[in-house]
Amino acid sequence: IPVSIDRNVSLNFNRTTVQFYNGLDETKGNNNVAFWNFFKNSIPFKSHFSKEKAFTFYSHFRCGILHQVQTKKKSVLRIGRSEMVKNIDEKISEGLIIDRVKFHNALEEEINLYKNKLLNDDVILKQNFITKMNLICDI
Q1: pLDDT at residue 139 tops 80
Q2: Closest listed residue to residue 6, CA positions, set 77, 83, 94
Q3: How far apart are CA 64 and CA 47, in angstroms?
Q4: Sign of the torsion formed by the C-alpha atoms of 62, 109, 19 and 51
Q5: What is the dihedral of CA 120, 48, 28, 9, to 10 degrees?
Q6: Per-residue pLDDT, 3
Q7: Are 132 and 20 a contacting pair, CB within 8 Å?
Q8: Side-chain half-sphere of 85: how many Cα atoms within 13 Å?
Q9: Fewer CB atoms inside 10 A, N or C side of the chain?
């Protein structure tokens, strides 16, 4: 079953968020590390993602959905789960179950936290936001 646009956007938004936080044009090199940095520094996500889970998420969900329009290995998106992220089995690299509603809600929370930091005059974050927006607008 193809995933909807909102799911694809949610699964890829964290890389863009890292670029806004840091004022980057693009994330070069180890993109899985960018995902790990996002998850470990995000209040709504950090308790749900270890480094291994972040790398598996990047490979199975972000790359799988973006490039093959499907998740990889045993990884699946579900709703109504008790946890946002759960291992399929003992070996994390075999797959994860991601509750897409919980994931999306955490992402919305992260965006609101980011907005509040910008509005509360975090000077460095504000400058990085302006830098990223200038790059997007080709200014």
Answers
A1: no
A2: 77
A3: 24
A4: negative
A5: -80
A6: 42
A7: yes
A8: 23
A9: N
At 50, the amino acid letter reads S
Token readout for 79 is 């709703």
Residue with tokens 């936001």: 129
Say if CB 59 and CB 126 are below 8 A apart: no
Lookup: tokens for 51: 């480094």
Rg of the chain over Cα atoms, rounded to whole angstroms, equals 15
Instruction: Round to whole Å and give the CA distance between 32 and 11.
Output: 13
Identity (one letter) of the amino acid at 31? N
DSSP designation for 23: T
| Tally of residues, the chain | 139
Q: What pLDDT, on the 0 to 100 scale, is given for residue 18?
A: 78
* 87 contacts 123 by C-beta, under 8 angstroms: no
Render pLDDT for 1-13 as a digit per residue (tens, 0 to 9).
344 445 555 666 6
Burial 2-11 (b: 16+ CB within 10 A, else e): ebeeebbebb
Helix axes 5-22, 31-41, angle to 10 degrees: 80
Interhelix angle 5-22/123-136, rounded to 10 degrees, is: 120
